[in-house]
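During the reporting period, our protein records have gained a structure token line. One record among many is quoted in full directly below:
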Amino acid sequence: MNTNKKPSLVEQVVYAILSDQKKGSLNVNRIYSRLPLDTHITKEQIHQALLSLVQKKKARQPSKGQFQAIQSGQTLRGVITASKRGELVLEKEDREWVYLPSRITDKLLPGDVIEVGFTQKGKRQSFEDVLLISRNPPTIMGTLDVFDNKAYLLSPGSGLPDIEILGDVENELDGHKASVRILDFPRNSRFPTGEVVDVFGIPGAHDTEIHAIVAEFGFNTKFPKEVIAETDAISHEITMAPYREDFRKITTFTIDPEDAKDFDDALSLCHLDNGNIEVGVHIADVEHYVKAGTELDKEAANRATSVYLVDRTIPMLPEILSNNLCSLRPNEDRYAFSVIIEFDKEFNIAKSRITKTLIHSDFRFSYETAQNQLDEKAGSYFKELALLNVIAKKHEEIRYAQGALKFESKELRFILDEDLLPTQVIEKKRFDTHKLIETYMLLANRIVAKTVYDAKTPPVPFIYRTHDDPPPDKLIEFAKFCRQLGYPIQIDNEKLLRASFNSLLERTEGKPEQELLQQMSIRTMAKAVYTGQKTSHFGLAFPFYSHFTSPIRRYPDLLAHRLLFDYLQNQFSKSLLTPDLIEALAKHSSNKEQMASDAERASVKYKLTELMQHHEGETFEARVTGVTEWGIYATITEFHAEGLIRLRDISFDRFMFVEDKRMVVGKRTKRTYQLGDYLYVKVKRALPEERTIDLILIE
């Protein structure tokens, strides 16, 4: 028997239940009783899964019919970071936190990479033998406390004591928000030492907080002078080349957000003599301008992504490229890298090809103006828009029929006054035109990935966008939560799981619990990442997937362009980059993508907190979005703003956290609060500089 074979979904579920057992062992019947209700996993399947786990040395039999998970002697590796409670915790690669005892974290710093041995029985863990792999001195945000030119940085959320600043600091900087680079944490000192990196200004001011967010997550608004010099030297002349196809006379247009300046993609449409329809998915040819090994390319690789904050964009490329030369602007010739798809009379894909092109966009639509034409059935290029939409809807249906998940993320937009203060927050609408563009981009990305993978055996090195199956322990917890809300799901196998997720979203559409269950569904999923090792994408149900369609704002797309063009030129006989280098760039890009997402959320949180500052003392309806041992997280529905109800602040009862049920229970009233519950809250305090909102529970 191959013990390295990936465990089946039933094995994963059974092992998760075994691992959750605090002490003793479990038999088939007890495991069966702990499955989510309405499951179709049989006792025979459980028994076979147990025998397989024993064979794979994932479980043992202390006595006949009894089973235990084998978990002892493990090693955890990760990065030390600060939790929401200001504790130092270990963050694993899957971004799960492990709470470490204070004796383990003493003298450790955020950013430290460590290995720690541990033994686990049930949920009880004991830690030992901490090994410091590398020390990456972090930059900490906080407030300067200055007296007689002696300064400390106060940063209660960092998990560290006050940081002693080496060198003189001017007294007038007292109370200013600043970033400090940690230098050391001496064994004989109560305080870490550090040096001031940047001073942002008075806490709470808009520019202070936004610049602090940019620095906090490691981004830079300015480009090095070497990069600017290279960019300025780039020729603006557009000429035809033998390897390009001329699409300038074919109807072409872009559809983007109203305020977009960097146009990554355009669509063209023409009718072929054989009665078929040819759609060109044209992507900005960034690789034509950004050559491997240049300072411009190194800076793009380091940034890895553009960052979108509430009031500004931090581009991956200098604006002369992102907003001009590379951008597929209307009424201008532009270089593109294109996926040309031929659809037959039933709109099935007949064939496709990938080629570099020269295009000329005839028109620039916003999503809103394109949608208006579809709704009114009239306007410039309406017939082309309508036909593209019909084809897109067919392939959207095919995608969902094949098991793709129907998740749709929510985006917020702020209305800011002349002082950049938020006066209103609005949820962005999603139109058919959003789905139209999304469908063609997905088709192009999939075609590129499959073309590269199928071109040669063994496959040539490439960068893929991959998404793993959901972790079984999270699936079990989510299934139980859905059952509590009256929406049972089935997790017995992948096909039923996909169908259940989509059915859940359909059954809750338009209902109050829709947003909560969608958020919980997303939290249950693994995170999508870049890699050169795996080609599949669980969420999209694609066996092959890559990112190709946004090279202006994502470095993995630019890398895919570079590799693909090299392969097309050399008939897939030459590898531009080694697999190890591709994997390193992929991992770096995944990390930067997460940092950009965190920065974007931080800027939204800052503006939401600033907005709620004007509503302190007011009462609102809210919904429970998280329950912990220290409090209840609730989102005010009117403003989409999440705050914390601290258990110690609840005056009418003493509430205790029940971990296995993810709820709090009142000791006297027996009142319970759990995910999804509605309640009324008063805004106690909103602190924009800390991006925190404190709420009071109304009895």
Q: What stands out?
A: The mean pLDDT is 89. The chain is about 30% helix and 30% strand. Residues 579-612 form the longest helix (34 residues). The chain has five domains: 9-69, 74-134, 139-203, 225-398+431-463+543-596, 616-697.
